[in-house]
């Protein structure tokens, strides 16, 4: 089980990014959450198979059709699994 935090910068809010990220993550069998940040970025925590996380990261570099992604930062996390599903959060998880 691998766990990572991603920060997506560019035009990522107001383009259905969170809803599509949920769909993409669930399709890959990942759990976690995604939320909008105050600095107009979108942030995700995702956990699951290493290959599935790599595939999600690849999708994040493009995002949904109306997104204009400038960068995706990844930080691998070492703490244990916390999520049972992948969902939209309305604030950063604690």
Describe the structure.
Helix content is 23%, strand content 38%. By secondary structure, it is an alpha+beta fold. It has a single domain, classed as 2-Layer Sandwich (Alpha-Beta Plaits). A five-stranded mixed β-sheet has the order 4-1-3-2-5, covered by helices on one side. A hairpin with a 5-residue loop joins β2 and β3.
Which descriptors would you attach to this protein?
single chain; 94 residues; alpha+beta; Alpha-Beta Plaits; five-stranded mixed β-sheet; globular
CATH architecture classification name:
2-Layer Sandwich
**CA-based gyration radius:** 12 Å
Strand order of the largest sheet: 4-1-3-2-5
CATH class: Alpha Beta
Mean pLDDT: 95
Q: How many β strands by DSSP?
A: 5
Number of structural units classed as domains: 1
Number of helices: 2
The arrangement of helices and strands along the chain is EHEEHEE
Q: What is the CATH third-level topology name?
A: Alpha-Beta Plaits
Q: What fraction of the residues are assigned to beta strands by DSSP? A: 35-45%
Query: Can you tell me the overall shape?
Result: globular
